[in-house]
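#random but structural
TW: two for the price of one
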Amino acid sequence: MDLDDNKPGTAPTRRRFVTTRRLDRMFVELASVYRFIARFFKEVWFPPYEFKEIIKQCYEIGVRSLPLISLTGFIIGIVFTNQSRPSLAGFGATALLPALISVAIVRAMGPLVTALIAAGRVGSNIGAELGSMRVTEQIDAMEVSATNPFKFLVVSRVLASTFMIPALTMYTTFVSLLGGYLNVHQNELTTLTTFFYQVFDAITFLDIIASSVKSVIFGFTIGMVGCYKGYNSSKGTEGVGKAANSSVVTAMFLIFIEELLIMQIINAIRAV
């Protein structure tokens, strides 16, 4: 049957064909993602180990992100403190402001904000860089010269993002707490010792572990998504732009899903 004719019964056949084609593409994409991740876990354990490239990528991901992370974290601490004060003042509980800030930033805002900023900056950078290398056939040239491009380009970047996002999260948390302290000190004249005593009194060891685990997962997700989109890009310069854009969107989407799932697991553990 010709799918383009207008005979009765043609439209349902066309719809079934389109639906099947979309499902096929989705399952093929999932299979490609699975093979890509499986190859990473296979390559990461065996030499050669690209230590110089890993250190270089740690510098690019971590050190070069510090100005943006510092400014964003400091502003978040001040803004969150300002927004929380009226609610607590209505109950005469402004003394609990340091505890509220610490719980919110350590448990959720620190890891999440750091991951979102890194997804925008690091994810797009990795996707565009590998995408341009793919469309200009630099990756093919590495394969011809007996160099393993997957280990050199993908493994090093995923490991660097997995290592550096937790470090950036700790730094963001500290800067945010510092911004919150300056705001609290300006309005309530709370001393630095009193502020951080209340901060550490409000959080638990489980909060710190959960924040660290989330940061590691977020870092792995950002690196893996950026590398996958860039490594498998095509269609010339248009593909490079799509790789950078889809790296950011996909990474942010997965980060929110992971945040929801991890939060449910931690709350279940906390309730035990």
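TW: number two ↓
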Amino acid sequence: MAERRARTATLLMHCPDRPGVVAAVTRFLATHGANIVDLDQHVDRAEGVFFMRVRWELEGFALDAEAFEAAFRSGIADHFDAVWQLHHQDRPLRLALFVSKMSHCLYDLLSRWQSGEWRVEIPLIISNHETLRPVAQQFGIPFHCFAISPENKAEQEAAEIELLERHGIDLVVLARYMQIVGPALINAFPQRIINIHHSFLPAFAGARPYHAAHARGVKIIGATSHYVTEDLDAGPIIDQDVTRITHRDSIKALVRKGQDLEKLVLARGVWAHLQRQTLVYRNRTIVFS
């Protein structure tokens, strides 16, 4: 028998650290009938900031989203000077995948969706090349190609934004999309665009990182998933990993090992976002367990 997926809500918040925050929030939720199923917290003592994630079942909870906003703001947020966000996990999130010519991350994400591992919807794939259209067709997903040049970049990204909004996209995933995303698209989806960077940031930028790593004789290679900001490859980091290499590894071996890392690190970053485990503070990401 398939496990029943309970409808849940997740609260992410941060505020100046002080006694009584957890007690106040949990008391507020209990008063309105919440059954809390997850709670995680962290204090940054250097900054004096308290972070918390709490998830509860919606069945039996007395407040809808609008009523929660009013009651929580007046009862908790204003008192503790809290910055907060509420997410109702009562429907699958809708993902748009952006790709160029490399397929390894695309296949990995699509397999997680197709197998049911991820409860998401993928209504479209966007690319700046036609190369991966057959992959989209293989999975039955509409493929939209926007050829981009310096002259038409703003116009093409405006069309992409219109398409994303028309399809109700919640999260954009750059699955080795080899095009710098412009400010209009970033501002349309703040903290809702995840990129995979093909190195352990900030080393070896560019299109041939494994060749550069091989030439330098590095002993580890890595991958980084992060939220996209206007600072190129410098957005809040969600996940990173590395693997050891030696002088015996050829460029082909480095590419193979690196692409394995890219798939895993991107998937972990997307999964953390889907589970509402990420909370961006300044230019870093708190990732709750």
